Structure formats: C-alpha cells, structure tokens
Amino acid sequence: MSQTALRRSPSPDAEQAALNAAYGVLAGEARLLPIKVTGFYAEKLAAEAAALGHTRGPLHRVVYPSRERLDQRAPGEVADFVDDRSNMKTASRAIVQKYADRVLFLVTPRCAAHCQYCFRQDVLTEMQGDDPADLDETLAALTDHVRADPAIREVILSGGDPLTLSPAALDRVLSRLRALPQLDSIRLHTRCAVFAPPFFDKGDKIGLLAEAGVRLVHHVVHPYEICDRVADLFHRLDRAGIRQYNQFPILRGVNDDAGLLARLLLRLDEARVRNLSLFAPDPIHHSAAFRLTLDRLFAIHDRLSAETPSWINATALTFDSPLGKFRREHLVARDRTAGTALFRHRGQDIPYHDLPAEMDVPGNPAVMLWRG
Ligand code: SF4
What's the CA-to-centroid distance between 160 and ligand 1, angstroms? Predict the structure, then answer.
C-alpha cells in the first residue's frame, strides 16, 4: 500500500465515528434506539478493538452500528414485528397481553445500554418520553387487569430493563405483584448482568428478587460477555436462591456459529444459568445485518444438537411472530423462489419472509472468537 493510501485510510475510530453519525440520523428517522453503552461494556469493546485492530468485532456489533446495518434491507421488514401495539389491552401501553395465561409489563423504557438488534426498538422509542412518575398509576392498572382475569398466572417484567429501576421502584413493583395470589410466576428479563453488574448492588436488589421468588431471564449473546465479574454475579444470584435462565437471538457476525454457541451455553451452564431458547432475529426495519436464512439457522441448530451434550442440545430454536411464538418443527411449506415460508401452530398459519441467501454472509469465527 502506498504512503498516500495509508494516509487516506480512516482509522478504526474515525470509521466507527462516521457510522455512528450516519446511524444517528437514521435512528431519528426510523425510530431506532440511539447508541448507548455502559463503561463496564466499553472496557470489553476496547479489548476487542485492540486485539482485532478494527471495530467490526462481535461485541461492537451488539452496541454499535455496522455498515451493513445502515445499508442492508430485506423483504418483509416492519417496525413492530411482534405487534405489541395490537396486544395493549388497557389504556396503558406498558401492559401487553398476547397469551391468555400471561401478561407482559413494559415497566420502563430504559435500558442500561442499547442493543442494535433489539426487536422492540419502535415501541421503546415511542415510550422514551413516558413519565416515570406514572409507575404507581400503571401498577394499579396492571393489578386491576390481572385481578379481573383469573386465567392470568404469570406477569413478565420487561421493557426496557426492569433492573434499571431504583431499588425503591423495584420493591414497589414486586410487592404489588406478590400480593396477587393468583400468580404462579413473576418473570423478569434483563441484560443488566452483562451491561452493568453494579446495578444489582444498588440497594438490596438481589434480596428483593430472591424474596419475590422471581425467575430471572438473562439475554447473554456471546461467551465474552461472561467475564469473571459477570460469572461471579451469576453465582451470587444462584446462592441467593434465584432461578436463572437465558434466551437470545442467533445474530449474524455476533454468534452465528455452532462452536461459538456451544461455548456460550457451556459457560452459562457452569454459571448455573439454564438456556431456554435460541431465537431467530425478528425482521424489524434495518435488521437484515443480523438475520440468517432459515437454511443456515436450521444447520447451526442441527450441528449444535449433534455435537453437544444433552443439557445444551435441549435448547429450542424459536421464532417470534405477531401471533405468538412458534418453533422450527411448525414449518409446513416453503417457496424458495419467492423467499417465503409458512409455519402452522395452534391452528394458525404464520407467513414468514426468509432472508435472501445472497445477503447471508456468515460471521467469521476467527473474528467472533478472537481470543481463540
Ligand atoms: S436490553 Fe433488551 S430491551 Fe434493552 S435494547 Fe437490549 S434487547 Fe432491547
């Protein structure tokens, strides 16, 4: 390479800064979440960039936009793929009910950091301006809604990330839910363990979670997210008697490799966290950079099943849809020419737009597992 070319090559930082600036404009137009990263996660990003010499590593793709994220669009993308809005059953948009026996409570639109692949970006962006002082009002609406319907057995706290609530607010929420005897389960979804472990030590959040008997579902997407500090947190939660689970999407360029996934699931198992599902990323606007074709999703899942112990290969490959979750075994028809598929579950037909094969450039395992 000539000296001139060397001088003209943007540094990794400059290249990422340009992508971030372009993404800022796109996020405003397309209602995507702005870039947000914690100091704790930024230390991992710095180590990744130093090792790779660029910012196209797996953890960067989790929180920073890539060139493909800006440029690639696939057929069938929509803003709110799981259709939360149609399932908002009360005046409050924080209360979503898609299934008869469980209610989703979007208790806060706030997260410790923002994931580029988040499927709820459209609704969360809209909720960003909601007044946190409304929490008691929303809680009252939620408890009224649950009491009015004895079929509801579970409340799922999500968002946003419920662990970003202050200890006092979390206490208020869990106390109200514990006072509802019809509930068998309070579930809480979070990425605070990997983005901000200190959040668990604000007040006595671990004690509150243990006392309420919650099921805690982490969303760890890569084995390098589980450093010693995160593993230590998982063990502390386990010692406190909290049941811990994990579920996550298979993301192109982040974790789309069976060997990497096996490593993640083993690491979770060692830390007493049981993985439930692998998800296909939802086709929301500007999600193509993360998506895989059905063929490759199935191949990765098959390899994971064939080459790993049973506590790993019991993990199901699951899809979201406006009509609820379904699995690969519910596939009934494919039209490869049109790039469409049809799943049938509980008597309902669920059409699916596959990712065009030419867009599905697999992540490089040497980059995604740069530590070797
Ligand atoms: S933590 Fe969860 S809700 Fe928040 S941006 Fe990430 S995926 Fe979305």
Answer: 6
